[in-house]
Design brief:
The chain has 3 helices and 4 strands; from the N terminus they run ααβαβββ. The protein is of the alpha+beta class. The chain has a domain of about 70 residues: Surface presentation of antigens (SPOA) (Roll), CATH 2.30.330. It has a 4-stranded antiparallel β-sheet, with no helix packed on it.
Length: about 120
């Protein structure tokens, strides 16, 4: 048997991290996976509700008689310029602005560049 010197612990162990009373419990609850899962669970009821998303390139006004005279190849001038952001609506409510892009399947898409805050 070997003799090992005994030392007494006279100092408290070094404190690492924060104590529970130093933490903002609300912030911890928000960042835990369980809290995220519970908030997602509350939203699951609305995940399957269909919404109508519209991307508006521009607008114009014309008289009905001019509208009825439009034929194949007619050009309707809109109120937007090339490169100007388009409006993105969800259920007729402006929610964002974006740019037109071409997707992998040679279809048009929209990249959101700005979220519009609602005015109530």
């Amino acid at each position: 048997m070997t003799d090992t010197p005994k030392t007494e612990a006279t100092e408290a162990p070094e404190k690492k991290g924060l104590s529970l009373d130093e933490l903002d419990v609300a912030d911890v609850a928000k960042s835990t996976p369980a809290a995220e899962a519970s908030s997602d669970a509350g939203l699951e009821a609305v995940y399957d509700i269909p919404v109508r998303v519209s991307a508006v390139l521009g607008e114009t006004q014309m008289e009905i008689n001019k509208l009825l005279k439009l034929g194949r190849g007619a050009v309707v001038q809109l109120d937007r310029k090339i490169g100007e952001a388009i409006d993105i609506y969800v259920n007729d409510r402006l929610v964002a602005r974006g740019e037109v892009v071409i997707t992998d399947e040679d279809k048009l898409g929209v990249t959101m560049t700005e979220i519009v805050k609602s005015v109530k």
